[in-house]
Amino acid sequence: MVRDGIDFINLDNASWEQFDPQQLKWLEDLLARDRADATIRTVVVGRHAALPESISANHSMNEWPVGVESGQRVYLDLLKPQNDGHKLVYVLASHSHFFMDGIFNTEYWRTHGGVLPGWISGTAGAERYPLPPKSQDAKTARTNVYGYLLATVNPLGPPAGTIQFDFQQIEEKQIPPDIMDRFTEPFVDECFSGNRRTEGFPEPAGKSIGQ
């Protein structure tokens, strides 16, 4: 969907046969069109699992062979509108149940084409995960929180087409009284104080994070 010079693209990689050839062709045709269109200033791409070689590689498209191959291809495809088309490109994912800004600041992408602005926002209520190794390389990394990502298009100051993403944390005290009454205070409190995974995900077989 294109609106006000921004192309919003949603990809399907919720199952392990993705990205399949049909979806790749569709995306690459779309990105070629965007690069050639001077009215398109920004490309926003979302999908479920993060593209490969992110800081969250241990729970991402790195987990299956087609995911690694097709996901790396999509990442390189997204570098073209940024590097060659001079577009703003933003890459969003969920899948990992924490918040992270700057997920592609890894040695792999710093030496294989460049770093895309990327976020993981998986903090809508599911079991919360420990942060992965090298999370300190992200701009921001937070776990055991609930919240959502708020996007502000064309904030004052930056160039036209800029989108500012801000994490909005939801505190226990913000839960409406009717929800507290329905589920009881101890249950809601357990959702905030508990509901967390104690162990992280292993690195994908035969793959080292950032390599």
Molecular structure report:
The chain has 211 residues and is an alpha/beta fold. The chain has a single domain (2-193), classed as Transcription Regulator spoIIAA. Helix content is 26%, strand content 20%. The protein has five helices and nine strands. The protein has helices spanning 21-36, 65-83, 107-110, 177-183, 185-193, and strands at 2-3, 6-10, 42-46, 88-93, 99-101, 118-121, 140-142, 147-153, 163-169. A seven-stranded mixed sheet has the order 1-2-3-4-6-5-7, covered by helices on one side. Helix 1 runs parallel beside helix 2. The two termini are 35 Å apart.
Summarize the structure.
This protein is α/β, with parallel strands linked by helices.
